[in-house]
Design a protein that fits this description.
With about 450 residues, the chain is an alpha+beta fold. It has 16 helices and 5 strands.
């Protein structure tokens, strides 16, 4: 004879506690999913429903505790979670085990709270009202922990400086969940003696507060460390930009002086030609060539933009890449030359680095800089790429390499100072950055 329908229902209610647990596990990673949220949430709903139904029949048939059924299905649930979440193993394990620990804490607290009623329960499953209270407690703890999970934990997951810490952290979360499940009461009558129940409930509250406090402390420490590292890197980058800009200005001044002296040079050359002084003419022309250096192709009316473009034109030629310039910028523009050089330099340098990994015929970078109106400047840099680019919550590409990604962050910061925008599109195998800047520079907020 098969299990009674009422028994199956009691197992289903108890196993349904995995549904809010799954929601809690998805809160910190909902920005790091491999597929669309609709597809992921739909697939998770189907998997969880199948687990509750199958687990209810299995538990009722064998008469085992619901915790054993959950443990049996845990590898499958973890595998599904790992498949839909686009994080490394350590981070995925921590989020999964942390949500498991929170829900185990909720279950333990409710079982202690409802111990007087459960003491009269002869079955291994909770009474229906206790199971419903467990689900409600998980929903409440999910709401209380939402800001910690969504803001703080999700931000910690993006910090590459913490990558080595997630494995021990996930083990600690697993150990906490195991302890909470292990200490779950089996003899409720014993809890009603003395102050055991009161002390145990207080301990659950302390553990919950401790978890929030622990993540908050880690988040604050990490934020300070990451910010200090980022400031050092930005200062180093600023120093490099200043040196590079000084070099470009020096080159620009040299070419300007050469153009200024061009008429004088022509008079000297004309005199040497008419005097048939061939040897002197040859020496003089050699001196001019040495002063002028390599031939300069004028790319833009604005001297600063022209100098930057010439610099990267030579870099691209040395690399074997091609830059297609479309530069329509007058000699005077409302943006500071240092800011304009920094934006163009960062974007073009990133593009050349990206195409360097492609075949020679695909190493093409397209650069457009145009004064749209007297108070609006547009910059667009496009380049092909291979591989997968994941965007972060700040709208910039996510990177796991130390020291990378600062250039685009700097570009975005400069655009915002001028009340502008920095938009990135990574569709159809093309990486495109579009910058718009307006009017006068604004103070950063």
């Amino acid at each position: 004879m098969g299990p009674h329908a009422n028994t199956i229902l009691r197992y289903a209610l108890e196993l349904a506690s995995v549904i809010p647990a799954a929601v809690i596990a998805l809160i910190p990673v909902h920005r790091s999913l491999r597929r669309s949220k609709t597809l992921v949430y739909g697939a998770m709903a189907v998997v969880l429903l199948a687990f509750v139904v199958a687990g209810s029949f299995i538990g009722a048939y064998f008469g085992c505790a619901s915790s054993l059924v959950t443990f049996a299905f845990m590898p499958l649930l973890l595998a599904v979670y790992s498949y839909v979440v686009d994080l490394n193993v350590g981070k995925t394990l921590f989020c999964f085990m942390f949500s498991t620990a929170l829900c185990a804490l909720s279950t333990l607290f409710v079982s202690l709270l409802n111990a007087p009623v459960e003491a009269t329960n002869p079955l291994v499953t909770f009474l229906p009202e206790t199971s419903l209270m467990v689900i409600l407690a998980e929903v409440v703890i999910g709401i209380l922990f939402y800001r910690t999970l969504d803001a703080k934990l999700s931000m910690l997951l993006t910090e590459e400086d913490l990558d080595g810490s997630w494995y021990p952290a996930s083990f600690a979360a697993f150990l906490l969940a195991a302890i909470l499940i292990w200490v779950s009461p089996t003899n409720y009558a014993l809890l009603l003696e003395g102050r055991i129940r009161t002390i145990s409930m207080a301990a659950c509250v302390i553990v919950a507060i401790g978890l929030v406090f622990l993540i908050d402390v880690i988040w604050r420490l990490s934020s300070h460390l990451v910010e200090n590292t980022r400031l050092r890197q930005e200062n180093n980058m600023l120093s490099m930009e200043e040196r590079r800009y000084a070099q470009l200005r020096s080159y620009m001044n040299q070419t300007r002086e050469l153009r200024h002296d061009f008429r004088q040079h022509m008079r000297v050359i004309s005199g040497l030609v008419h005097g048939n002084q061939i040897d002197e003419l040859t020496n003089y022309v050699d001196q001019i060539n040495q002063m002028a250096g390599q031939e300069h192709r004028r790319l833009c009316a604005n001297h600063a933009v022209d100098a930057v473009a010439s610099y990267y034109e030579a870099m691209a030629a040395e690399q074997g890449a091609t830059i297609e310039w479309s530069l329509d910028v007058p000699e005077e523009v409302f943006i500071k030359e240092a800011d304009l050089c920094s934006i163009i330099g960062n974007l073009v340098e990133n593009a050349l680095q990206a195409v360097s990994k492609l075949p020679a015929d695909r190493q093409i970078v397209k650069v457009t800089v145009r004064l749209i109106t007297e108070a609006m400047l547009g910059i667009t840099v496009k380049n092909p790429y291979e591989g997968k680019i994941r965007m972060g919550r700040n709208g910039l590409p996510r990177t796991y390499k130390r020291g990378h990604g600062i250039g685009l962050a700097s570009v975005s910061a400069i655009a915002k100072r001028y009340g502008g925008t920095c938009d990135i599109d990574v569709s159809n195998g093309q990486f495109a950055v579009s910058i718009l800047m307006y009017g006068e520079e604004k103070n950063a907020a």
